[in-house]
Each structure stands twice: as C-alpha cells, then as structure tokens.
TrEMBL record:
Record-annotated Methionyl/Valyl/Leucyl/Isoleucyl-tRNA synthetase anticodon-binding domain positions: 802-916
Motif segment ('KMSKS' region): 726-730
Native source organism of the sequence: Streptomyces flavovirens
UniProt name for this protein: Leucine--tRNA ligase
Taxonomic lineage: Bacteria, Bacillati, Actinomycetota, Actinomycetes, Kitasatosporales
Similarity comment text for this entry: Belongs to the class-I aminoacyl-tRNA synthetase family.
Domain Methionyl/Leucyl tRNA synthetase: 64-168
GN (gene name): leuS
Catalytic activity line of the entry: tRNA(Leu) + L-leucine + ATP = L-leucyl-tRNA(Leu) + AMP + diphosphate
Length: 955
C-alpha cells in the first residue's frame, strides 16, 4: 500500500488515503442504514399524505438479482449494480421518486450440488452465501431500499410463487377473447352447453376423471405425458431453453434424451402471438428482441392432409404449399403416433432394398430405427451436411393435388416437436429432402422453374433449387393450375383450393413449445397440488399456502449413468412419506391425498420478483393494485407498463425474460396487475474480462503470481501464455471487490468500474489502473480540504468567468451523460473540471465547490456525503437537487462542416454543433467559394447532414 504512511502523509494528516476512505465509507454506510436514506415511499402509505412527493415522477430501477454463489463476488459482478446505483442516484437528484433494491434468486442447482458434496443442507449454505454477499455489496455503498429485499427461498415469498402457480393452473386461454380467463368460466360454458365437450356428451354425464382430463386440455398449467428432455446425469428433466445447441444440459453439460414422462407444463404457446407483438413497444436491445423473435419462431404456411389407405390421414405443416405438386414422398418423425397405425405386416411387393434397411418387416425396421434416433439430440438430427438416414414404413399416402401414391418414411431429420411432426417432402426444392431422396433413390419433380441455367431435370442437379424468385411449372390438375404463377401467388391460390376441398388450410406455426415446468430436485418451490385416490390433481386452497419445503433424509437428486437413456427420475421429496401422504379437507370433508413431489424450476422465483419489490410485506395480496399501478402501470411511451430500467447480462434473452413476460401477461389478464410487460427498458451491460495465464499443459496459473518481462509472461520461472477471458475462480484470475475496497475504498472502485468504457462494451480488468481514479478523488479532496489542518478551504467569493464556463459546461455534460448512462464520459468531464480547478489554484468559491460535490455524488457517494457535510450542510447529499447549467455559460463549441459541390470539397464552415439543417443549408449556399464553384448553375439537390456535411448537386 504505497499511499499510506509515507513521509508526505505525516506532513498531511488530512489527506484522502485508503484509511480515510475506509473510515468515511463505513461511517456513512452506517448512517444511511440508520436513517433509511434510500427507502422509497409508496403512494398508498408515505406518499398519500405528502402531495409534493406524490407529484414526483417515479423511476423503478432494477438489476437482475444475483444467485448467492459460494464463491462470492468478483469485481465483474457489481458492474451492473454500480451502474444502476449511479443512475438511480442521479434520478433521485433530478426529482424522481426512485425505487431501487436487490434481492436474491436463491433456489437452484449449485447449492444442491454443494450440499451433495459436503452434506450441508442447501438452506444453510445458501444463507451463509447470502450473508457473505450482502456484506460485499454493502461495502460498495449501493443505495438500496433494504426493507424491500428478500430471497426467493423465503416462505413468505414463495407462498406467492405458489399462489401464482394456482392462478395459472386455474385459468385457460380464451382464443376468441385473446386472453386468459378463470377456469370456472370455462366450466360454466361446458355446463350450459355453450361449449361442446370433446366427445359431445353433456358435462353432467362426465365423471370426475373425464372432467379433469377435459380441463387439462385447457388449463395454462397442466400435466402431460409428452416426450421431454431427460438428463440422467443431472437426475432431472429440463426445459427446451435449458438444453444447449448440441443437445446437452446447459448446467453440467450432461447428455439429454427424449423420454416420455408425466410432467407439468405451462401453456406459454397460447401467448406466442402476444409475446411476439408486444416486443415492438419495448425499449430493449434489438439483438435480444431478435433472439426472442427467433425463439418464438413464427412461420406462416399451411396444413395439408394426405390420406392413407385405411388409416385416416397424415397432416403435414409446410411453408411451401406452392410446391405441393412436387411432393414425391412423406416423412414422419420416428416417434410419431401414426407410425404404429400405418405400418403393414409385411413389406409391399417389390420394395426397394435400400428402403428397408435390410430389415425383415416394417415393424422391425421401425423399432430398430427409433432406438437409433432416440440417442440423438434435435440439433444432431437437424444438422444440414450430415448423411440422411431413415427407413420406409411400408405405407403409402396420396398426394391430394396430384392423386399420386407417395411412400411414407420415418427419418430423424423430421422432429416430433415442430409443426405436426410430419412433412411432405419436395426433394427438388428443399435441400434436406434432396439429400434424402438421393440416398434413397426417390423420385424428384421440378415444380419451380430454376432461374439459373441448371435446367428442369432435378436428377442432373447438385442441390435443390429453393429460390422464391421464380415461376411455378408442372403444377396443374383438372381443377387448379399454378403454372406461371410466382411463389407468393401460387401459395395463395393453392391454399384457397385446399380449404375449398377440406384437405388443408392456411396456418401459422410457432417454434415455441410449452414450458416444461417440473424438476426432480429438492431445492425448489413445492407444487401446491395434491392427488386424490383416483389420481386427479387438486389445487390446494390459498389458506394452505405456503406449502413449505419439508425436511428429507437425503436431498440429493437421484442421478444415473449420464448415457443411460432408459433410466427414470426419482424425486427427493418422494422420500418423505409422512409429507407425501396426507389427509386434508379441501372443502368436501377429510380425505386422503398424495402430494406432488416435483419442484418448480429455478426460473419460477425470478418470473415475478419485480412485483414483490413493490409491496414485499403484503400478507393479503401479491401486490396492492394501487402500488403496482404507481410503479409499474402503463403510461405515455410505455404502453404495457413495466420497470423503467432493467440491467443485466445478455445470456437471459430467452429464458428468464421470456418466462417473466409470460407470467406478467397471465397476471394482467386475470386482473391482478395493470402492467402486461415486466420490463419496459432493458439494458445489457458488457462483461469485465480478465487475462488468463496458462502453463505449457494448458492449466491456468494464478494471475496474481505472474510476472511480465519484455512483453512475455512468467510463472515461477516458466513461460506462460496470456489470453483475455472470463474472470472467475476456476481461471485463477478473480479479483474481489473487497481487495480493491481495502486498497483504495469503494468510491475508487465505483469510479474505476464506471470509467472503464461504455457500459455495454466488455472491458479487461487492470488492477494497476485503479489508482488513477483514486488520484482523482485525492485531487478533489485537496481542492476542498486543507490536507494539513483538515479545514475546508472554500471562500465566499464569486468565481471568475473562466471557472464559470468550465463549471457549467461540466454540469451540462455530466447531467446529459448520466441520463444517457454514459458514465465513462461523465467521469471524464468531472476529471476535466477538477483539473481545471486545480490548475487555476487558490481556494475554490463555495458555489463551485458545492456544485462539484453534487456532480460527483452519484458516482462516489461516500466522499461526496463527507464533503457536503464538511461544507456545512445538515441534509444528506443523496436528496439534493442535481446542479442545473446556466446556458449563458454553456457556449457551444464550433465544429467544422464540409461543403461539397459535385462531390468535391469547396468550403469548410466553422459552425455551432446544434445548427439546424435549414440554417446550415443557407450558410453553405451563401459561401463565396461555393457560389464560385456553382458558376451560376442551378441546384438540383442539397443533401444536409447537420452539423458535419452539406452536399450540393448542381442541375
Ligand atoms: C415442404 C417444403 C418444400 C418445405 C420446400 C420447405 C421447402 P420453418 O420455416 O422453420 O417453419 N418441416 C415442417 N415440420 C417439420 C418438422 N417437424 N421437422 C423438420 N422439418 C419440418 O420450416 C418449415 C418447413 O420445414 C416446412 O416446409 C417443412 O418442409 C419443414 F421447398 O414443406 B417444407
């Protein structure tokens, strides 16, 4: 520690040192906590009696809350927290009622895995981790309303997570009304006969089990036996969003298989259109919107029925119904239910030997092929370049427009989870079908005339022709002809024909699947569901919530050989028979029930936490409607309402952010909240990266022990390589905020993190550079406090004109930068002002010193509070008004504008950067060089890009 206890220090006992920073910071943190400085008033309580406060615009500012991991925070974690804090402080100082707090997302896998390794109960390790993280965060001086903090594992919190589950379970999506409604209203429709039951019987004629099954088809939370992602190595099933592109578990990187298991799902697909459409009104990064759009994956196309002899028909989904005349075979996903029904006992006479795969019968071929397909992930199955595999089912279907008999195959390139799980194959115009047809010697027919010179015989082609810019050929029957039409017109024409003949219709298909919502874990929210003796699911009444997580002997998940797809999950909660088997009175007398033993996925708790911040201790409701309306409700420019600023990493694009949007919409539809979107503005901060040093074996060595010599890096004498990577314990390059706070103080750390670059850009951490921000604070201090006596040195005089200009320019610039979240340039402007004042010498005018302190307050709140008080104020700096620039002193700088005539530069004008297009055009046309260059010619066009460029095109 070079800055303490030097000779200079003895001579200057009141210098801003690390020790002084530590003292100042601890003192004000205690004070702020004691005073409740950051507590945000709610409109129903505190604001109601205070009209001035109630008139303030609100700002609800949020971070993606952390998972309390055992390794604590490194300096990369608080980047976003510091940014929201600086922003929130600036908003508070510009007249807003600011809500800013932070909770913990505390259910989840790591605590459980740690528990399995060490035998510690997940609650104990999680709570210890939270204590540690809270201390680390407190050290940063974040202005959070601590009364509003909670953890998702708190029973008072997950009571409401369970309550929301019940709301979702007890509702259905009315497609006509375009919103969720209570399930009781659906039951009423069935009872009155307004809506027919699936088999047409009267509702009263159905028994309890049949009614439950019918309602299960509608409920927004439902159990089903669909194929799910089963990861034996993790011991749990996973949502599609949790499976990586190469078909492994996002956590733990274990293989994932498709298995048919009874699981809970959320009918998020009912909201596909709204989730897509409402993105338009959100202020989110385009990249994230795009990821959500792609994940939802809206495709317009058609469903077409192909009759199969004796077995009804196969319905396909296609986006190229225009190519229907070119469909020369069909493919079902290997898992498709129809397969059993269409396969004949024996191969038809003369079946091509390549089609049978050498199997004696269709049944044998199908069984063998299904086994092979189940071992592959969806992504492997869809890989473009790969050889196409498959086998003939022995069945033929009829092409509804050509009347031709087409063979039906099963092949793994067709997925069960998309469209109808069946396709019409058009090998001439789809490259996957082309490859398959080649491998299986299937016929191809050209129905879209190639616009290149390959000719119309597909057997001579290298690949399919799939352009839209062409005309249809070979596409006519007795009733309809598409020949000569373009693709778009042909689609419309054939869709109409299909509809008229009752063999198909235009449809929209989504890539989005329902959200698999149950996990075979211990450390999650229990489902508020019990089963009666007939196996019918019943929701618990609200009065029985929270249903607390019980103690069990062994909370580790049952895991299996990661590659053994034939295993079945076992839930830890099922091991507590006393808890599972209960007698309850659900309104019709005491009866025996069995509890659901799955738990909710760890996304559940983060699906609605923004709402609970608003009203964290409400025991009667999820959130008071008036409170919700005030902080989250729709308003000008925020059509669906939502949090005003939400900062977090880009990795949550389709998980947390999609799920949270879905829950908001359901709660909105059911009338519980006025907002239909949780987060109006989303901002993704960059990452703090760090150098990773590796030895010759490729193993990371501790970064702190690496020495640099002549541009090379050495660890214990051995040369090591250096690359920029993530920061973390495993890469041995983590720097903790505690270390930096200890060495320089939290204000310096805050300044350094904000000064590193634009907030949305990733940046490398450099411990050696931190001292630069420490020096800024030292100079700031020295400009106001005498280092020898500790006295404030300001004087009550008027500053000179030069200083006023520097001051007001800084005020203007810093204010704009803070509002625009350009904290790095704000710091540069503060530094410039401070340097100006240092250079000017002499004591500062009080009015200048005070405004300087206010400018710094959002960034370095502790030192600002200290100086503010030393300047003689009694109220906290936190609640002062941010300084306002006097425009008279904010003189525009000039910029150079280039004027071109016919593309050649003819003049350079020194002008104000805020000049209007009209003004600039007039100035340019009046310039004598421009007039000369035009030589009397008229003007055809003037292109003005104020303030940088004017381009004149003569007539
Ligand atoms: C015939 C056709 C002809 C097709 C052609 C494409 C080109 P998107 O845009 O992603 O929605 N398809 C449909 N269901 C499938 C499934 N379960 N597994 C694999 N592929 C499936 O893609 C829709 C197209 O993907 C559909 O249109 C279908 O192939 C295929 F020249 O039908 B098409």
């Amino acid at each position: 520690m070079s800055e303490t206890n030097t000779a200079a220090e003895v001579a200057a006992p009141h210098r801003y040192t690390a020790a002084m920073a530590a003292d100042i910071e601890a003192r004000w943190q205690d004070f702020w906590d004691a005073e409740g400085t950051y507590e945000a008033p709610n409109p129903t309580g505190d604001l109601a009696g205070d009209p001035a406060l109630a008139a303030r615009p609100k700002k609800f500012i949020m971070d993606m809350f952390p998972y309390p991991s055992g390794s604590g925070l490194h300096v990369g974690h608080p980047l976003g927290y510091i940014a929201t804090d600086v922003y929130a402080r600036h908003q508070r100082m510009t007249g807003h009622n600011v809500l800013h707090t932070l909770g913990f997302d505390a259910f989840g896998l790591p605590a459980e895995q740690y528990a399995v390794q060490t035998g510690t109960h997940p609650r104990i390790s999680t709570e210890a981790n939270m204590e540690n993280m809270k201390a680390q965060l407190r050290r940063l001086g974040l202005g959070h309303d601590k009364r509003r903090s909670f953890a998702t594992i708190d029973a008072e919190y997950y009571k409401w997570t369970q309550w929301i589950f019940l709301q979702i379970f007890n509702s259905w999506y009315d497609t006509e009304a375009g919103r969720a409604r209570p399930i009781a209203e659906l039951v009423a429709q069935f009872e009155s006969g307004e809506r027919a039951t699936p088999d047409g019987r009267a509702w009263a004629a159905l028994d309890a089990g049949e009614r439950a099954d019918v309602l299960g088809q509608y409920r927004l939370a439902y159990a089903s036996d669909a194929p799910v992602n089963w990861s034996p190595g993790l011991g749990t099933v996973l949502a599609n969003e949790e499976v990586t592109a190469d078909g492994r578990s996002e956590r733990g990187n274990f293989p994932v298989f498709k298995a048919k298991l009874r699981q809970w799902n959320m009918r998020i697909t009912a909201y596909a259109d709204r989730l897509l459409d409402d993105l338009d009104g959100l202020d989110w990064p385009e990249a994230i919107k795009l990821q959500q759009r792609n994940w939802i994956g809206r495709s317009e196309g058609a469903r077409v029925d192909f009759p199969v002899d004796g077995a009804g028909g196969i319905t396909v989904f296609t986006t190229r119904q225009d190519t229907l005349f070119g469909a020369t075979y069909m493919v079902l996903a290997p898992e498709h239910d129809l397969v059993e029904r269409i396969i004949p006992a024996a191969w038809p006479e003369g079946t091509h030997p390549v089609w049978t795969g050498g199997h004696a019968s269709p049944a044998e071929a199908v069984t063998a092929y299904r086994k092979q397909a189940a071992a592959k992930s969806d992504v492997e199955r869809q890989a473009e370049a790969k050889d196409k595999t498959g086998v003939f089912t022995g069945a033929y279907a009829t092409n509804p427009v050509s009347g031709e008999k087409v063979p039906v195959f099963i092949a793994d390139y067709v997925l069960m989870g998309y469209g109808t799980g069946a396709i019409m194959a058009v090998p001439a115009h789809d490259s996957r079908d082309f490859a398959f047809a080649r491998a299986f010697e299937l016929p191809m027919r050209c129905v879209v005339e190639p616009s290149d010179d390959r000719g119309t015989d597909p057997s001579t082609w290298e690949d399919a022709f799939s352009s839209y810019e062409a005309k249809l050929v070979n596409s006519a029957n007795d009733e309809v002809s598409l020949d000569g039409l373009g693709v778009v017109d042909a689609k419309a024409r054939i869709t109409e024909w299909l509809r008229e003949h009752g063999v198909g219709e235009g449809t929209v298909n989504f890539r989005l699947r329902d959200w698999l919502f149950s996990r075979q874990r211990y450390w999650g929210e229990p489902f508020p569901i019990v089963y009666d003796e007939e196996g019918i699911a019943h929701p618990l009444p609200e009065s029985m919530l929270p249903l607390e997580l019980p103690e069990v002997e062994d909370y580790s998940p049952r895991t299996f050989d990661p590659d053994d797809a034939d295993t079945q999950p076992e839930t830890p909660l099922s091991r507590n028979a006393d808890w599972v088997n209960v007698t309850l009175d659900l309104g019709d007398g005491p009866k025996k029930y069995r509890r659901e033993t799955n738990t909710m996925p760890n996304w559940a708790g983060s699906c609605w936490y923004e709402l609970r911040y608003l009203d964290p201790h409400n025991e009667r409701r999820l959130v008071d409607p008036e409170v919700e309306q005030y902080w989250m409700g729709p308003r000008d420019g925020q059509p669906a309402g939502g949090v005003d600023l939400y900062i977090g990493g880009a990795e949550h694009a389709v998980l947390h952010l999609l799920y949270a949007r879905f829950w908001s919409k359901v709660l909105h539809d059911l009338g519980h909240i006025s907002s239909s979107e949780p987060f109006h503005k989303l901002y993704n901060q960059g990452m703090i990266q760090a150098f990773v040093y590796r030895d010759s074996r490729g193993i990371a060595v501790p970064a702190a022990e690496v020495e640099e010599r002549d541009g090379a890096y050495y660890h214990q004498g051995e040369k090591v390589s250096r690359v920029l990577g993530k920061m973390g314990k495993s890469l041995k390059n983590a720097v903790t905020p505690d270390e930096i706070c200890g060495e320089y103080g939290a204000d310096t750390l805050r300044l350094y993190e904000m000064a590193m670059g634009p907030l949305d850009v990733s940046r490398p951490w450099d411990t050696r550079a931190v001292v630069g921000q420490f020096r800024l604070l030292q100079r700031l201090w020295r400009n106001i406090v005498d280092e020898e006596t500790g006295e404030v040195t300001v004087v009550d005089t008027e500053p000179d004109e030069d200083t006023l200009r520097a001051l007001h320019k800084a005020i203007d610039g810093v204010g704009q930068d803070m509002a625009g979240m350009r904290f790095n340039t704000a710091i540069a402007k503060v530094t410039e002002l401070n340097n100006h004042l240092t250079k000017a010498g002499g004591p500062l005018a009080r009015s200048v010193a005070e405004r300087l302190v206010l400018l710094v307050a959002p960034l370095a709140p502790h030192v600002a509070e200290e100086l503010w008080r030393r300047l003689g104020h009694t109220g906290s700096v936190v609640h002062q008004d941010f300084p306002v620039a006097d425009p008279a002193y904010v003189v525009d700088e000039t910029v150079t504008c280039v004027v071109q005539v016919k593309g050649k530069v003819r003049a350079r004008l020194e002008i104000s950067p805020s000049i209007s297009d009209e003004e600039l055009e007039a100035l340019a046309l009046a310039d004598e060089n421009v007039v000369a260059a035009l030589g009397g010619a008229g003007i055809r066009k003037v292109i003005v890009r104020a303030p940088k460029l004017v381009n004149i095109v003569p007539a």
